[in-house]
């Protein structure tokens, strides 16, 4: 059931083209049935999780490699799964309306569903390798989504940027996960979490932590990797709404929370998280305040939220963990709603620039009410869930064991800026003088409003009755991050205390900031443009330029297009290294014993040598090819003589077909001319003789070297027992080593496609006028 | 390329079907005797190559009815499909499954995922080689 739940997104993605033809404009509603029923399924799991229990569902995949499709459901992954499937439902409905009539709507849904399924797999995976597979799948699918408008060069550029940062970080993460596997000896999160061995005493701890942090930071857009996230806005708005609220960027935060109880008992972990989290929080809040595009404002405020979340994991107290989960849920609710509204505004007015919007509340009253709710939650005002989360945030920072004062100050500054941002998002477009927009504004269609409406109402309900989410699943989630069972007592009203006063201060200051937003904007622009010249994004572009330069330099050097140079380089390097290893590890043993050879064995050897010599001295191409064929037949004879009929037959057939293919190619070549100078030929001769000598010595040495026990007896004993075949060669090919063969036929397929496209492209080139 | 020798034409027409039959024979007996998908595929390819040498690329295409690339794709799909029964029954991927169907009289028919896989290899080898050969021949015409 769980396997189906995770993979159903991929399965449905395959069916999209057919469904699209059947359902037409209602495709969004039809596809949304899947995440809706998944939401139901995950809600169903809540009762069994609330007791602090962990469900582990096992499916074998590649057991001998330690890779399995195991899933783990605890409070944390359940919260994420619910967010993904619930918000996914509204996003799918929304996208059908937002991209209505778009030429590539079908393709969009294929990628979107795969994205959703990858994200579900990511948060539910128990196996570290499977987790990583899903992690990279989200990078790839989001790359396709960001670059969805692939005819736009900017979209392609930013899609590539997102992919480079997140997939590059993913590679580092893989190293970290492998170290983690070495440290714990286990491939599964559930084992790692359950074991009480102190990881931070292990000598790999620092390396693993740094690698995992880099992976999580790139994915969750922490400073200094934050630049890719606003650029990911090149994606269509439904993608941004999903990416920012429930998926992708939260993956890094998820991983940090997941590993917190095992790896978090060290200052390196908590200090890194607090430092980078707080820095990201401030940077994001500042950049959100200084932007004018509505999507950019929201994107930067996501960065602020991600920083806050990271920082809270770093603080790591029980209170902070509670604040983390509440902030996560609150942020997902309002950010999903706000992004969908941003898309609706853009859709109905034709502009993304807030400075060009105004007085829309008369034309779009429903949108205005929904935005009001979501923006209040963003600003952290009662009675919305955002308020509960922010109070918890401030309270937990006040109680933080280290850096308390610094963190609180930073959080207050950030929340000040966020209040201003909320004002920008809500008051700027809907109030004030009516400004003319490229399109005449009117209310967005129902499908585009239902999502934000429901999400905002949930935020309101959770705010008014905060015990509700707590009792549902938040307690379990906090327990699974914190590592011990935790009872949260969420309340809307804590009385007049320090956090409330800090909130009031930030609200006042935020209002003042908002009032002077217009006046500050030019100054902020100058600051931002001068910073961006030395910022991390500039670094990224310099790095990419450097890579291109190195690539073109080494291409000139190594891949200069002359086949002869390639061959000489390859052969010299390979056989030089092999020969060196052979000499140093094994030594030379040149005592040969020919006494029990039959005369026809010598005959075959002579035949092979003679045909080789003939092939290299003849000036006839056909003769050369034919004598190479003779040489191959000689080898086939040897195989047959030493009773390996399968190899013999294969060798004969391959030789025959090779000669035929070579002849076919040779017919196309220009007549034989002298292509190489005597000097080059003597160089080639030297290299060839060298390679041949090393190969011969290697083959002779192989008979003596026995590093491992021979595996052939196993095959001989078991080929009939286990695989019901008397022909061991075939049994090995199709049974014992089937995966190899499967890989090989795919290589064959690639080779065929390569040759085909080469011939085809050549033919097309010739047909051009 | 199209040779007009009568001997080659006649020989190709006579030998090709025999070669194809032989290739299927090799394929099916491969699990117990020398043979198998790879060798069978090579023999089948050489049968078509012989025909192509005698009559040219286009008639060979017509004779095969199927595009060689489709054969290759079918081979890869067969290879993948042979892993499905194990996955569906919850075993590790690539675990072989066997079905023995009794035949009239003595003996029984041995069917297996391994055979499906072998057929996949056969088709992939045949498809690859014919893509090469027909591609090369057509590029010259």
UniProtKB/TrEMBL annotation, chain A:
Keyword Transcription belongs to the record: no
Limits of the NADH:quinone oxidoreductase/Mrp antiporter transmembrane domain: 125-411
Ranges where the MrpA C-terminal/MbhD domain occurs: 606-670
MrpA C-terminal/MbhE domain mapped to chain residues: 680-760
Pfam families: MbhD, MbhE, Proton_antipo_M, Proton_antipo_N
Membrane protein topology class: Multi-pass membrane protein
UniProt domain NADH-Ubiquinone oxidoreductase (complex I) chain 5 N-terminal: residue ranges: 62-109
The keyword tRNA processing is annotated on this UniProt entry: no
Membrane spanning stretches: 71-94, 106-123, 129-146, 158-182, 202-218, 239-257, 269-290, 297-316, 322-345, 366-385, 405-427, 448-472, 492-515, 563-583, 598-617, 624-642, 687-708, 741-759
Subcellular location, record wording: Cell membrane; Membrane
InterPro entries the UniProt entry points to: CPA3_Na-H_Antiporter_A, MrpA_C/MbhD, MrpA_C/MbhE, ND/Mrp_TM, Proton_antipo_N
Keywords for this protein: Antiport, Cell membrane, Ion transport, Membrane, Transmembrane, Transmembrane helix, Transport
Domain of life, per lineage: Bacteria
The protein's name: Monovalent cation/H+ antiporter subunit A
Species assigned in the record: Marinobacter salinisoli
Lineage of origin: Bacteria, Pseudomonadati, Pseudomonadota, Gammaproteobacteria, Pseudomonadales
From TrEMBL, chain B:
Domain of life from the UniProt record: Bacteria
Transmembrane segments: 7-28, 34-57, 69-88, 108-136
Boundaries of every Na+/H+ antiporter MnhB subunit-related protein domain copy: 7-131
Main location: membrane
Pfam families xref list: MnhB (PF04039)
Entries under NCBIfam families matching the protein: PRK12509.1
Protein name: Na+/H+ antiporter subunit B
Species this protein is from: Marinobacter salinisoli
High-level lineage: Bacteria, Pseudomonadati, Pseudomonadota, Gammaproteobacteria, Pseudomonadales
């Amino acid at each position: 059931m769980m396997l189906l739940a995770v993979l159903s997104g991929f399965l449905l993605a395959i069916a999209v083209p057919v469904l699209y033809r059947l359902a037409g404009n209602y495709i969004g509603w039809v596809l949304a049935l899947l995440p809706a029923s998944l939401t139901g399924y995950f809600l169903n799991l809540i009762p069994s999780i609330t007791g602090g229990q962990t469900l582990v569902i096992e499916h074998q995949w590649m057991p001998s490699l330690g890779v399995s499709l195991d899933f783990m459901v605890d409070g944390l992954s359940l919260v994420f799964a619910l967010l993904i499937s619930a918000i996914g439902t509204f996003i799918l409905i929304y996208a059908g309306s937002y991209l209505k009539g778009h030429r590539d709507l079908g393709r969009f849904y294929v990628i979107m569903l795969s994205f959703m399924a990858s994200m579900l797999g990511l948060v539910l995976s128990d196996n570290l390798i499977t987790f990583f597979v899903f992690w990279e799948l989200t990078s790839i699918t989001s790359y396709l989504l960001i670059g969805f408008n692939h005819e736009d060069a900017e979209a392609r550029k930013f899609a590539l940027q997102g992919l480079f940062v997140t997939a590059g970080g993913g590679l580092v993460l893989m190293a970290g996960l492998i170290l983690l596997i070495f440290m714990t000896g286990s491939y599964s999160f559930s084992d790692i979490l359950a074991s009480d061995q102190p990881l931070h005493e292990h000598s790999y701890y620092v390396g693993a932590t740094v690698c995992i942090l880099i992976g999580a930071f790139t994915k969750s857009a922490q400073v200094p990797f934050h630049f890719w996230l606003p650029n990911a806005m090149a994606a269509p708005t439904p993608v941004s709404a999903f990416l920012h609220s429930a998926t992708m960027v939260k993956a890094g935060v998820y991983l940090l929370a997941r590993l917190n109880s095992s790896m978090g008992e060290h200052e390196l972990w908590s200090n890194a998280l607090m430092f980078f989290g707080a820095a990201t929080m401030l940077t994001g809040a500042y950049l959100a305040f200084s932007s004018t595009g509505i999507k950019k404002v929201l994107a930067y405020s996501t960065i602020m939220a991600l920083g806050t979340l990271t920082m809270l994991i770093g603080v790591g107290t029980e209170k902070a963990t509670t604040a983390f989960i509440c902030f996560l849920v609150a942020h997902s609710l309002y950010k999903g709603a706000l992004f969908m509204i941003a898309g609706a505004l853009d859709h109905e007015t034709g502009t993304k620039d807030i400075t060009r919007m105004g007085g829309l509340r008369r034309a779009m009253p429903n949108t205005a009410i929904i935005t009001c709710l979501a923006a209040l939650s963003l600003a952290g005002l009662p009675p919305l869930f955002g308020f509960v989360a922010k109070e918890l945030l401030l309270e937990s920072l006040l109680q933080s064991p280290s850096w308390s004062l610094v963190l609180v100050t930073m959080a207050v500054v950030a929340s000040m800026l966020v209040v201003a941002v909320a004002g920008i998002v809500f008051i700027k477009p809907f109030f004030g003088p009516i400004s003319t927009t490229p399109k005449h504004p009117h209310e967005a269609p129902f499908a585009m409003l239902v999502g934000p409406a429901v999400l905002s109402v949930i935020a309101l309900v959770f705010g008014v009755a905060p015990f509700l989410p707590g009792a549902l699943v938040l307690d379990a989630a906090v327990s699974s991050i914190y590592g011990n069972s935790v009872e949260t007592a969420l309340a809307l009203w804590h009385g007049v205390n320090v956090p409330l006063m800090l909130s009031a201060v930030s609200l006042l200051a935020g209002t003042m900031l908002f009032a002077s937003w217009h006046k500050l904007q030019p100054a902020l622009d100058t600051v931002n443009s001068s910073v961006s010249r030395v910022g991390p994004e500039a670094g990224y572009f310099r790095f990419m330029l450097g890579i291109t330069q190195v690539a073109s330099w080494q291409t000139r050097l190594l891949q200069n297009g002359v086949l002869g140079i390639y061959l000489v380089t390859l052969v010299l390097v390979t056989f030089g290294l092999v020969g060196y290893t052979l000499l140093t590890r094994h030594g030379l043993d040149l005592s040969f014993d020919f006494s029990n050879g039959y005369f026809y064995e010598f005959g075959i050897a002579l035949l092979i040598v003679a045909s080789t010599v003939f092939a290299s001295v003849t000036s006839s191409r056909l003769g050369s090819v034919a004598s190479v064929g003779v040489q191959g037949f000689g080898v086939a004879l040897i195989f047959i003589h030493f009773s390996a009929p399968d190899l013999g037959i294969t060798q004969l057939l391959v030789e025959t077909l090779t000669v035929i293919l070579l002849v076919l190619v040779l017919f196309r070549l220009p007549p034989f001319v002298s292509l190489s100078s005597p000097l080059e030929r003597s160089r080639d001769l030297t290299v060839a003789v060298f390679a041949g000598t090393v190969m011969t010595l290697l083959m002779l040495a192989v008979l003596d070297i026995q590093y491992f026990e021979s595996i052939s007896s196993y095959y001989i004993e078991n080929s009939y027992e286990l695989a019901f075949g008397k022909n061991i060669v075939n049994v090995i090919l199709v049974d014992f080593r089937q995966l190899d063969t499967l890989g090989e036929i795919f290589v064959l397929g690639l080779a065929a496609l390569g040759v085909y496209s080469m011939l085809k492209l050549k033919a097309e080139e010739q047909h051009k006028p | 390329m199209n040779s007009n020798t009568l001997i080659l034409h006649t020989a190709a027409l006579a030998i090709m079907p025999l070669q194809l039959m032989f290739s299927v024979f090799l394929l099916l007996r491969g699990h117990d005797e020398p043979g198998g998908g790879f060798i069978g595929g090579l023999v089948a390819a050489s049968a078509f190559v012989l025909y192509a040498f005698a009559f040219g690329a286009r008639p060979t295409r017509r004779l095969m009815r199927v595009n060689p690339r489709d054969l290759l794709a079918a081979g890869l799909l067969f290879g993948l499909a042979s892993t499905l029964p194990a996955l569906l029954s919850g075993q590790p991927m690539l675990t072989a499954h066997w079905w023995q169907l009794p035949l009239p009289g003595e003996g029984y028919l041995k069917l297996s995922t391994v055979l499906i896989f072998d057929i996949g290899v056969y088709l992939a080898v045949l498809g690859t080689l014919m893509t090469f050969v027909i591609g090369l021949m057509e590029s010259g015409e």
